[in-house]
Specification:
The complex is a heterodimer of chains A (411) and B (377). By secondary structure, chain A is of the alpha+beta class. Chain A is 43% helix and 14% strand. In chain A, helix 8 runs parallel beside helix 10 and helix 9 packs antiparallel against helix 10. The chains are: A alpha+beta (411), B alpha+beta (377). Chains A and B meet through helix 8, helix 9, helix 10 and helix 12 of A and helix 1, helix 7, strand 11, helix 8 and helix 9 of B. The structure holds flavin-adenine dinucleotide (FAD) (2 copies).
């Protein structure tokens, strides 16, 4: 959120330097976007389900980084570009517009990376940042467990200190990229006796290659793969993998979620989720007919589309407004804390409506040659739940907004 | 082929920020809820000394060019003022007069502007007399303007003219040979009994039916570019109503949150129940969207004739804001339980304002209908 807003303030005066830069990336995209590989590419970083897709995306991210269009605002000494964030924002805008493949190493690029830059030691920065950008080192996140998802503070996976190692036991679930990752940001319980359960948690940058860690892929709603259940059986990791101090894990995890939920800036950039906007829906609606008439002429359809357009406009404008503090004095953290809820729920409803608009072909799926746009919208709608559930469900987000913005009492 | 590139401009000047600060303080000080309630049954709905102070502060001239005694900041600068007024239910003829003065500014001859704008800056009250139909979307104008004795005569009654009883000047929408025209009519020209007050659902507001039948005017009372001004003024009216409504939605939210954080049932604060918490969050999100759209419209609007992007912004703002207030008022009553059903509960003020505001300058559906060709064709 913060990122877009900076753009808002500065965009109207886009200097010659920035315009040149923009032209440069447009040109680069034109000459470097890979041809259609002939297999289904993911719409989000949460659907990397085969080695084939992995290799393709890894190569692409490496290429974007090598060209200097990823991590532009990260420190130079760690593989970044050391430039103002605005350049990355422009690069992202253009990559989004051109619908280039995603930069899939999102847990590194978007969450672990910024966390390490903002709070990590020099050693951690040296060890991890460059590999995140180059896509050499894939990252995953071990927060959720089978019995504890929304209630993250109650997780049970144990990490016990033994000499200069920690011994991990337990299991994590919904681990995006778990089977391909080299590192995991891991939240585990180091003190089961702690008076407040949050104080018993610690945060690790854990190597997935350690003995005793195994993963088992889980098939998703769309039929694709992309996440795993991750098992720890007496898995030993070096004690130096702990981030911060023992017992400080909850605070670090919450900080990480700020990046994940878009409430705090710092991400390396790149497109992580294919953007599907109202213009795409309107394009589709233009081609659909009912009884020989374009659906776009139907008054009820028109009214529904206008409602969505108003909502979309408010959403995008809100991302700019959030950067103008004078316009956010009332409930100052409202826009930042509600961004995930607002955006993901809008896209869910919008995509669902797309299927309704298709009429009977709306019942078809990827693989049927009669499906509208190859089943793109069906897949997009189902995939959208990754955003309304992952990273804190919409209901939990609503609790957060109610309690932290409006000051309502806890449940 | 649709090629819609949305305009995403939004900005706020230091001057606007200063106006916002002083407006907030002013409206809070002058219009606490006891004062608002004490004015519900009053004749005009406002206190003369408060209105006089607003004039003295220069607010009536904020949107008007310096050559007419204003401060030349444009109508966008009134947005923070109007939002604060909505928030504290502070009613004066400010909004009514601001809209009408924009009609003169945009459609008047130099003579008409120099005759009227300086006096509006000094507090003369001007009101738009537009509706003679139940419907803001109606293309038919029933009120007519016909030549008579070297001048013109009006025939017809106008409905729900805001602040009519105190107005010094009316801008009457009339059909002249089928063409929409705006005509300046001084209150002194009205016959006895021409004004009959409405009983509004919103008791903070004042409006009347005004019968202009038989009123004669000279040619110099006809706005030179009335038709163009009409397009702009309808949108400005919608934007200012949206802004006031958004302020009121914020007030409804504040009141509701106050209750949810003090009332206990089953041994718990009722705000802890998600059945109340989540819809209350929805009010916040709806209200915030309205705010965003209003500030966007305020960024785009200037003294020039309103372009397509500005029209889209004003219509979106109105559609969003009055729906947001309808929702906020409705839930605010419900979540107060039995208290919410009483006249004493302030939710009463907000739910009533919501019903009034949606019908000023077109309801949400009206604006969405007019947005459709702008966005879809
Ligand atoms: C595609 C995808 C990718 C993911 N990737 C990762 C990952 O890489 N790493 C990781 O650690 N996790 C990941 N997750 C897990 C995700 O964070 C959890 O699914 C999420 O936090 C919800 O937890 P849960 O699944 O246990 O659901 P539960 O917490 O059991 O929730 C079930 C339902 O109850 C509701 N609910 C729960 N508590 C409350 C409450 N207090 N008030 C109101 N409603 C409530 C929820 O909204 C939900 O609708 C991923 C999830 C998805 C869908
Ligand atoms: C027109 C009218 C006539 C009435 N006539 C009579 C009468 O003749 N005799 C009589 O005895 N009573 C009468 N009542 C009272 C009526 O029964 C109560 O108003 C009603 O039970 C709600 O209680 P309350 O007003 O204390 O609201 P509260 O219980 O304080 O409720 C406030 C809000 O919190 C919500 N809320 C409360 N508890 C929960 C919960 N656990 N979960 C989720 N939400 C919750 C409610 O839905 C409400 O929105 C009348 C009420 C009205 C409006």
């Amino acid at each position: 959120m913060k990122e877009n807003s900076q753009l808002a303030g500065q965009q109207s005066i886009e200097s010659a330097e920035l315009s040149d830069f923009r032209r440069g990336i447009i040109d680069w995209i034109k000459h470097n976007t890979p041809a259609d590989p002939g297999f289904l590419l993911p719409q989000t970083f949460m659907e990397v389900g085969s080695e084939q897709v992995l290799d393709f995306l890894r190569e692409w991210q490496h290429k974007v980084w090598s060209a200097g269009y990823l991590g532009m605002a990260w420190p130079k000494q760690y593989g970044g570009g050391g430039m103002p964030r605005l350049f990355q924002q422009i690069a992202d805008e253009e990559m989004k517009r051109a619908r280039v493949p995603i930069c899939f190493n999102v847990i590194g690029l978007g969450w672990a990376g910024p966390l390490i830059i903002d709070t990590g030691t020099d050693f951690e920065k040296e060890a991890y940042l460059k590999g995140i950008l180059s896509a050499e080192d894939i990252w995953c996140q071990g927060f959720s467990e089978p019995n504890h998802g929304s209630d993250l503070g109650s997780i049970q996976t144990r990490a016990e200190r033994d000499g200069d190692e920690y011994v991990i036991n337990g299991s994590k679930i919904w681990t995006t990229l778990g089977n391909y990752a080299k590192y995991m940001i891991l939240l585990a319980r180091t003190d089961a006796q702690a008076e407040r359960r949050y104080n018993g948690l610690s945060f690790f940058l854990a190597p997935m290659g350690a003995n005793g860690i195994s993963t088992s892929p889980i098939q998703k709603l769309t039929g694709e793969y992309g996440f795993t259940e991750t098992f720890f059986t007496d898995a030993r990791i070096p004690a130096s993998c702990i981030m911060g101090e023992e017992g400080h894990g909850w605070r670090i995890a919450m900080h990480t979620l700020q990046y994940e939920r878009g409430a705090e800036a710092g991400a390396a950039g790149g497109v992580s989720i294919l953007s599907i906007v109202m213009n795409d829906l309107l394009k589709m609606a233009q081609e659909v007919e009912r009884d020989g008439q374009p659906l776009l002429q139907d008054p009820i359809t028109r009214d529904n589309l206008v409602k969505f357009l108003i909502e979309e406009q408010a959403l995008y404008l809100g991302e700019r407004r959030v950067g103008i503090p004078a316009l956010c004095r009332d409930y100052p953290n409202s826009l930042a804390l509600s961004g995930k809820l607002r955006g993901t729920e809008f896209f869910r409803r919008m995509r669902q409506y797309a299927l309704t608009l298709q009429g009977t072909p709306g019942a078809l799926y990827v693989g049927d040659d009669q499906a509208v746009d190859g089943g793109f919208w069906q897949r997009a709608y189902l995939n959208n739940f990754s955003t309304t559930i992952g990273g804190g469900t919409s209901q939990v987000q609503a609790n957060i907004v109610g309690e932290h913005v409006l000051g309502l009492p806890k449940d | 082929m649709i090629k819609r590139t949305a305009n995403l401009e939004i900005s706020f000047s230091d001057e606007q920020a200063m106006i916002l600060d002083s407006a907030k303080d002013f409206c809070r000080d002058k219009s606490d809820i006891t004062t608002v309630r004490s004015l519900l049954k009053s004749e005009t709905g406002y206190k003369n000394d408060v209105w006089a102070e607003m004039i003295a502060l220069g607010w009536t001239g904020l949107a008007l060019p310096e050559q007419y005694g204003g401060s030349g900041m444009g109508v966008g600068a009134t947005i923070p003022l109007v939002e604060s007024m909505g928030r504290h239910l502070l009613c004066t003829p400010f909004i009514t007069s601001t809209i009408a003065s924009q009609a003169i500014l945009r459609g008047g001859t130099e003579d008409q502007k120099s005759r009227w704008l300086p006096s509006i800056v000094e507090g003369a009250i001007a009101a738009m007399a537009m509706l003679d139909n139940e419907d803001w979307g109606a293309t038919e104008i029933r009120c007519t303007l016909t030549p008579k004795d070297g001048g013109f005569v009006l025939e017809g009654k106008k409905l729900q003219v805001n602040d009519a009883a105190k107005a010094d000047l009316f801008l009457v929408l009339a059909s002249s040979n089928g063409a929409p025209t705006l005509v300046l009519v001084e209150a002194t020209a009205l016959p006895q009994g021409a004004i009959s007050n409405n009983t509004l659902v919103d008791e903070t507001k004042r409006a009347s039916n005004v019968d202009f039948s038989g009123v004669t005017v000279k040619a110099d009372a006809i706005l030179a570019k009335g038709f163009e001004a009409l397009h702009d003024v309808r949108l400005i009216g919608a934007l200012l109503t949206a802004t006031e409504a958004t302020g009121t939605a914020a007030a409804a939210l504040d009141t509701l949150v106050g209750y949810l954080t003090t009332r206990k049932q089953f041994g718990r604060l009722i705000g802890s129940y998600q059945a109340l918490k989540h819809p209350t969050v929805d009010i916040l999100l709806q209200m915030d969207s309205a705010r965003t759209l209003i500030y966007h419209a305020a960024t785009l609007i200037n003294d020039a004739s309103l372009n397509k992007d500005t029209e889209i912004a004003c219509r979106m703002a109105k559609a969003q804001a009055t729906d947001a207030l309808l929702f906020a008022g409705d839930r605010s009553v419900q979540f107060h339980g039995g208290m919410g059903f009483t006249y004493d509960c302030d939710a009463m003020l907000y739910i009533r304002r919501a019903q009034w505001a949606q019908h000023q300058y077109g309801d949400a559906q009206h604006h969405r209908k007019l947005l459709a060709p702008l966005l879809l064709d």
